[in-house]
Amino acid sequence: MIVVDDFQGRPVGVLGLAKSGRAAAKALAAGGAEILAWDDNPKVREALAAELPIRDLATADWRDIAALVLSPGIPHSFPEPHPAVTRAREAGAAIIGDLELLGLAQPEARYIGITGTNGKSTTTALIGHILAAAGRRIAVGGNLGTPALSLAPLGRDGSYVIEASSFQLELISTLAFDIAVLLNITPDHLDRHGTMEGYVAAKRHIFARQNKAAVAIVGVDDAICRDLSDELRRTGPARVVPISVLEPVSAGVYVDQGWLVDAMGPKPVRVLDLGLAERLPGAHNWQNAAAAYAAARASGVDTAAVTAAICSFPGLAHRQELVDTIDGIRYINDSKATNADATEKALLCYPAIYWIAGGLPKAGGIAPLTPHFGRLRHTFLIGRATEEFAATLDGSVPFTRCGDLATAVAAASAEARHDGVPGAVVLLSPACASYDQFKNFEERGDTFRSLVEELREAPSR
Questions:
Q1: Is-catalytic flag, 205?
Q2: Is 43 a catalytic residue?
């Protein structure tokens, strides 16, 4: 755990007591701060009352409180600030987040930050995997899994590999990333940022305060990031490394006919056939690999070590996770795909798909996936979205109403074995939220994994 002693002997408010908020409260308390903790959920307050001093920060006297540590999910501007934020701001208290506290507590460490609308979790994990394989002292966390202040103290010889959401980036005022990665920007979280301009402004904070020794890695396959890359080249002190899966880029890294190409040196060099990176299928993962390669090389890891680690990357759970291959059929857990846009990335990766879809439907359903229906051999529908999805599929793709995941896995496996199509995959990529039948997408993915394990263990198939 990180110890934050910058507020020793001073009161600090902590608003929001989920994982990151609890970690912040513990780190500050260990450093001698007087904690005033609050969560708007009474059940959370009740559960933590024995270990944290609970105080309503919306009614507290802010004249003597040094700072408000805000959990990322709590609004501080749009659509309107939380009442505690307004009180803190009026009193002149600092409003900060957990990444800022990490930077204050570990000023000598190196920081690699990764953000983007899509792909940041995989890229963060992949960079961590490469650096760990190269023997570097690292810690991986942030918006991905482990809260920043629950990580180990690393000091001068360590590197923090941090997934940073737009909410977290807005709350940084002094931390500067030695290597900053922006993968892509598409509309997201506009309910919190108000406009697309507000969302873009939050994302570009990842490049704030970089110096001439720093590196800015930018995906240039969308117009917003391409313009930002050009701007950083003109105005920023950091070295800009563009990445692309669509076209060659100078002084950067790109993908050409499935090959990762390093163009950061005097001439472009093919360094890796990305077909060898089995756990990184599809163009979206090629972008992740290009960004991770650039970040690792900027960290001083040699090319051979980087490419070997990309190939050995085990992948992230629930994100096109290869669970098993049974009788030549691959079983893919993509439970994290909770909307059509995410599922589209999976459908583009495989030619013969036995698709498990459904759950709690999102606006628009699966109509945007119609151009990819030719890849579907059969669809197995589960959950509340069954009839809506059936209406979209009717006349285009064979489908079976399965109701629950266990029935769907058994039916998909049986159909795929019967057909014997080369390259077949049973793909759980639901294009739906999970809350009609599961606690979250993780539980849904874990259930799929268990069902596949049962197929493997079955005495006869």
A1: no
A2: no
